[in-house]
């Protein structure tokens, strides 16, 4: 498969030896994103199945909490950079999913996989944890 850059971040799940935190540091224009675990929001802010838009430095992140768990993903759709925070949460075949408002690409929250296109590749996820009631994420 060909390598693809996620919105200038230098990340690609398709290259052998998938890059980690160092690649996440590169952002459009060379502005670095913070490294390590970063605070996104209060856990209590994630209620009613509503997604929340956050940032790690200048990198947009979408945070969701469902019965299946907590998810943080890059907030721009990999198809044509649609704003996933403006999309809707839905359930497809029993799995919680995020639908891009621009073209309807649907991504499974548990692993970022494409459930419905037109997106041809999955949506990148970040590792998450909760510390003292705060949701934190770190690059893959």
TrEMBL record:
<keyword id="KW-0411">Iron-sulfur</keyword>
<keyword id="KW-0408">Iron</keyword>
<keyword id="KW-0001">2Fe-2S</keyword>
<dbReference type="GO" id="GO:0046872">
    <property type="term" value="F:metal ion binding"/>
</dbReference>
<keyword id="KW-0479">Metal-binding</keyword>
<dbReference type="GO" id="GO:0016705">
    <property type="term" value="F:oxidoreductase activity, acting on paired donors, with incorporation or reduction of molecular oxygen"/>
</dbReference>
<dbReference type="GO" id="GO:0051537">
    <property type="term" value="F:2 iron, 2 sulfur cluster binding"/>
</dbReference>
<protein>
    <recommendedName>
        <fullName>Rieske domain-containing protein</fullName>
    </recommendedName>
</protein>
<dbReference type="InterPro" id="IPR036922">
    <property type="entry name" value="Rieske_2Fe-2S_sf"/>
</dbReference>
<dbReference type="Pfam" id="PF00355">
    <property type="entry name" value="Rieske"/>
</dbReference>
<comment type="similarity">
    <text>Belongs to the bacterial ring-hydroxylating dioxygenase ferredoxin component family.</text>
</comment>
<dbReference type="InterPro" id="IPR017941">
    <property type="entry name" value="Rieske_2Fe-2S"/>
</dbReference>
<dbReference type="GO" id="GO:0004497">
    <property type="term" value="F:monooxygenase activity"/>
</dbReference>
<feature type="domain" description="Rieske">
    <location>
        <begin position="37"/>
        <end position="137"/>
    </location>
</feature>
